[in-house]
Amino acid sequence: MNKDQLAQVAKAMVAKNRGILAADESSGTIKRRFDAIGVESTADSRRDYREMMFRTADAMKNNISGVILYDETIRQNAKDGTPLVKIIEQMGSIPGIKVDAGVKPLTNYPGETITEGLDGLDARLAEYYKLGARFAKWRAVIDIAQSIPTYGCIKANAHALARYAALCQQANIVPIVEPEVLMDGGHDLARCYEVTEQVLKTVYEELYLARVFLEGTVLKPNMVVSGKKCATQAKPEQVAAETIRLFKQTVPVAVPGIAFLSGGQSDVEATANLDAINRAAALPWNVTFSYGRALQAAPQKAWSGKSENVPAAQAAFSHRARMNGLATTGEWTMDKESAARAA
Ligand code: 5MM
Q1: Which domain holds residue 77?
Q2: Based on the structure, what is the number of domains in the chain?
Q3: pLDDT by residue (tens digit) across 12-52?
Q4: Please, what is the Cα angle at 29 between 23 and 31, to 5 degrees?
Q5: CATH code, 225
Q6: DSSP characters for 226-275?
Q7: Has 72 been annotated as catalytic?
Q8: Cα 235 to chain center, whole Å?
Q9: Cα–Cα distances in angstroms (integers) from residue 45 to residues 4, 70, 87, in the given order
Q10: Which residues line ligand 1 (CB under 6 A)?
Q11: Is the pTM of this model over 0.85?
């Protein structure tokens, strides 16, 4: 393990003004996204769509530190034959790869899931390194509902995350550790806090037991937010206060950065919440974004599968990347959001 290299890559992934583009939708997820815009999901349409984003120079050079790719994408070439990985590198961004094999039902735990993908992971990581990946991602999913999550489910997922992280570092790949507490339910902010606290405490205990080098990791968590179906929705200032209070209690300062997922928040909401977190207090970690939907919803809609829409889609992607870049330093405002839109 080259600790200097791992720490350097992790630091670059969470540098101020920049964040991560999560473009690692698995085949089923990207099909659902394309269905919504009336585009058939084929290897070529997925390539065209992702190439459109990776060639958006101002976004990629100024605001996107790294891109999480799916197995298909890391092997794909652009229309002109250039490997997509090369385009990302030429833009000064770091290629990364999703290495989990998705969530499966957790035996004996009704309604709960475990993320799979540890079998043969060491060999896959060695191959991905050769293909250009310098970081990886593994997403554990914890749902909140009546009587769940259980400690058994949290522990099993945290253990898998730690095993994955150790294997990544052995292959000189920075692990993004993503324990996502879903915001889909009717639970309130306090319940999200309570569950996320238990999840993060368990994850860092497991990372410690697996002897993971924390300086060479990036955490990708959910913010402390109200469940989507909760009647009372917390405002950005409250989300920021509770998120910071929780993270100060659970995330070691040796971790260089926290790159939040958007989790189903609207794009502007995800930017406003990230901005409020960075505006509220000086923090011991760089706090940024690793958004999928919150970065891609607007460009996806603008593109809608038509080559003549590429400039509009790239403008929409640039705009969201720039707004989130501002949020990493607490300099985003609704005025900047609207001014850029009106221009
Ligand atoms: C881009 O979506 C990622 C892959 O999801 P599937 O494995 O379900 O296809 C997903 O892991 C994503 O990276 C995170 O959920 C963060 O994305 P959001 O949209 O929550 O910001």
Answers
A1: 3-342
A2: 1
A3: 999 999 999 999 999 999 999 999 999 999 999 999 999 99
A4: 105
A5: 3.20.20.70
A6: --TT-SSPPPHHHHHHHHHHHHHHHS-TTS-EEEE--TT--HHHHHHHHH
A7: no
A8: 22
A9: 39, 14, 18
A10: 22, 24-26, 29, 102, 139, 180, 261-263, 291-294
A11: yes
